[in-house]
Amino acid sequence: MVAGSPVLNQSGPPEFVFRAFTTVPEFQALLFLLFLLLYLMILCGNTAIVWAVCTHSSLRTPMYFFLSNLSFLEICYTSVVVPLMLSNIWGFQKPIPLAGCGAQMFFFVTLGSTDCFLLAVMAYDRYVAICHPLHYTLIMTQKLCIQMVAGALGLALFLSLQLTSLIFTLPFCGHLREINHFLCDVPPVLRLACADIRVHQAVLYVVGILVLTVPFLLICVSYAFITSAILRIRSGEGRRRAFSTCSSHLTVVLLQYGCCSLVYLRPRSSTSEDEDRQIALVYTFVTPLLNPLIYTLRNKDVKDALRHAIISKAASDTN
């Protein structure tokens, strides 16, 4: 049990408590402020992208439609984890009931999986734009874009529901169990089960392959065609702009898929709970923060839209 956690009656359904990052008050305050600042930056940056795409007609294209959906996912994704994490860092280690842990896992896996599928959809969008520019508007219709986003969400919901419901049929020995993590993620919760989890581990690998490996391979195939098409562009400026657009997406892809694969696809014998928690910080904070930074700092259209919005807002306030 974590120092400072409440002494509870050992009857009733299981509850979980997250292991503290540190018990030193000064470090707790520092971590709280750091994670709070990162969270606020994630919210502001991704909200700015959603707002810019929704309010500026020049950004109403498939690429920015997918980008705004990705930003909205990042907001929801971090909000499922960070507020509870901050409350546990700042004060008393509050137990989370079995149902609450299951709900957090379900939404975390659903949103994270949708994120991975959407990155693959965005790679397909770049493939069509660069390899078939004359047919881009005919292929990437508004209906198809909506269907692909809905399909990504629907598949993620299905896989997450199956995985979460399977895990929470397991017995958890004792009343209060400590999770060596800052959220109810699949691997640390599985470690607390007092039953044979080989089947559950196999299901986790299958879901991991469907969510991580398959989309990543599709992204690699898309970028193989994209690279070939870019190298055939005669204009040096044209090649530079095409590579610049794709490199932003690739940066997010490599970080997201790389970190998630280390947590979910490594053999259980080679995994470390402390390492998993550290890696999880990357895809909980760094990737959602990189998304608005990369796409705003390196994208002229988004920067122009935000600049125009700020100038218009300032002008309206002075009138």
Automatic annotation (TrEMBL):
Keyword flag Transmembrane helix: yes
Topology within the bilayer: Multi-pass membrane protein
Alphabetized UniProt keyword annotations: Cell membrane, G-protein coupled receptor, Membrane, Olfaction, Receptor, Sensory transduction, Transducer, Transmembrane, Transmembrane helix
GO molecular function, one term: G protein-coupled receptor activity
PROSITE patterns given in the database record: G_PROTEIN_RECEP_F1_1 (PS00237), G_PROTEIN_RECEP_F1_2 (PS50262)
Localization, UniProt: Cell membrane
Pfam families documented for this protein: 7tm_4
Keyword Transmembrane helix attached: yes
Gene Ontology CC terms: plasma membrane
Listed transmembrane segments: 29-52, 64-86, 106-124, 144-168, 202-226, 247-266, 278-297
G-protein coupled receptors family 1 profile domain boundaries: 45-295
Record family assignment: Belongs to the G-protein coupled receptor 1 family.
Function summary: Putative odorant or sperm cell receptor.
Protein name in the entry: Olfactory receptor
Species whose genome carries this gene: Sus scrofa (Pig)
Designated gene of the protein: LOC100512331
